[in-house]
Amino acid sequence: MATLSREDLSGLERNVLTTTVERMLAWARSSSVWPVQFGLACCAIEMIATTTSKFDIARFGMEAFRASPRQSDLMIVAGRVSQKMAPVLRHIYDQMLEPKWVLSMGDCASCGGVYNNYALVQGVDKIVPVDVYVAGCPPRPEALLYGLMKLQEKIREQARVGSQK
Amino acid sequence: MALARETLTINMGPQHPSTHGVLRLVLELEGEVIVSCQPVIGYLHTGIEKEMESRTYHQNIPLVDRIEYLSSYHEELAYCSAVEKLLGIQVPKRAQYIRVILCELNRIASHLVWLGTTGIDLNVSSLLMYCFRDRERIMELSEMVSGQRMMPGYFRIGGVAADLPEEFVPAVREFLEEFPRRLDEYEAMLTDNLIWRRRHEGVAVLSREDALRYGVTGPTLRGSGVAYDVRKAFPYSSYEEFEFDVPTGQRGDAYDRYRVRMEEMRQARRIVLQALDRLPAGPVITDDRKVALPPRRELVRSMEAVIHQFKLVSEGIHPPKGEVYAAVESPRGEKGYYIVSDGSNRPVRVRVRAPSFSNLQALPAMVRGGMLADVVVAIASIDIVLGDVDR
Amino acid sequence: MNESGVLTPVQAFLADRFGAAVVEAHAFRGDATVVVQRERVVDVLRALRETPWRFEMLIDLTAWDRLPAEPRFEVVYHLLSLERGERLRVKTRVPGTDPALPSAVAVFAGANWFEREVWDLFGIRFEGHPNLVRILMPDDWEGHPLRRDYPLTEEPVEFRGHVPKVPSEIIPRVPAPGEDP
User: Fold this and answer.
1) Model pLDDT for residues B170-200, shown as the tens digit of each residue
2) What's this model's pTM, rounded to 2 decimal places?
3) Chains in contact with A, counting 3 or more C-beta pairs less than 8 Å apart as contact
4) CA distance A77 to A52
């Protein structure tokens, strides 16, 4: 059997990466987050605009909006959440598998927005835990992309400091 | 042994890729054939009508934007027209032309969203990219004028908030210059496409009688052969000065509605070009100081202007007691506002006559007896906006 | 009475045909309106749908709460005649203690969802409606939100070092000039 000499191993540090398993997982998870199709109102149109060619969410690996919550990682709550829709939202959130994240897109999802009345839940964080809030009415596609990038940073940070909880 | 037959009840939505929003359909199927369809709505009910009762007339303009969010300019125009009718004031000609230009551009943008989302429902996914690319041009134009892509908040009671910027008119002309070629591309791709025709022809047929019984308006009604367009029947905001055609279909199926909307985009372009050619000079908002803010340079010179400004900002306008109904032709149909005033600075009742509400009521009649896969085409061809249905 | 002082042909026909059931007929800013008694409103709608008037489209059916005036609710029908290019508003008043009136579903099929919405938001019952259940609010909701005595239910926003105002109090209601609040 041939043994490796010191010269053979000399360039090794340039060709091999070492890391932790958590960081590998975080890199994989943050680079291919699959959102669930959950467009509710006007913010959904800007979310669709983000997936189109001018703003291109595909460069972040997020163009695969899954119809089924079982296959998705991220719930972008895009729009106002009415009292009738709130249990449905929770139901969809519960069906998503861990690890999962929630991005509250727009003012209505973050805090009730321009509306403050009997019909709307004043902020979706009353129902589900939110990771990133993107403000705007509706937020520009660039703002949503910035929020998604912040989410990616958060996912990678979670690898450094520990699990989601 | 006798075969027992049962229908299968399935639930479609409210979270569904093809319901164009939070619409829930309870479908009863016999095999693949729809026996009955019950839409369940209210998942986007926002209480906008009640909210508008606790705000002043000017504070309601941003609320109104968000009802039919794909055609915010039409929504604002309908609301402002109703309040202007109640006040009995005239809008200056330049403001009327500006409103027409923006509304027709909004019509093109809304129909492009319809076409793109219909495409992606039928798995013509590149159509979504193409249509939104063109819509982005219109969003840039909207941003030039009002600062916002969607929900502009640009129209005011008595006119518009500010004059058009210099770069707007050349930018619109540039967009309209190449737009017919884009439409030709889409029509070449779809109109004689075997798959598109097979999925649209004879599907979701709405007869003329059913359409009138349900109060359906807009391209859905015109596809069934009734040539009712609010811009022609009850012209508003100088539409009587423009030449344009109102396309109608014959059979009332999804294909006719597709043809109607494609032609409407061309006619909208025609209207905008006429409006740009004849855009008059002048003020962009009424000079009635009880309704519109005075221009800022007047505030330096006139005490009266300061008082008017103060009154308008801290109190709002006081329309006379009474009620009015004013309607515009939004991309989905007749958008009407019924406003009741008691003379105070808040409306007593603002009723939004939502075209998508009535159009959706006709959906069960359209899909009964059809296949399950045709429900997707039916919903797409009515072009509903759930914010409008539920308000 | 109309602003011009003269009844339109439709208003004249209705006043003639239905006599005392037509309580008022006026026009404001060009909108012709008739107010009829609630028992006869469906007959009025049916008569208007026939020739020669041909008001074959029910554009809108809604209501509003006139609290504290009595009768409390006013149910408003907006009709459109395509052939004659004319609109008409038909109104009827319904008391707050027994808000009920006959359903117009037999005359206009489109009244179905409109009446459900009025029931949901105002609590006005339409007799003869095939399925009068809530349409916009959740099925187990209590109360009728668009009534004037139903609160807007605003949530006060939390601020530190500042007394928060709910949005509807930022510009308070100012009654018509010359009226006391």
Assistant:
1) 999 999 999 999 999 999 999 999 999 999 9
2) 0.93
3) B, C
4) 19
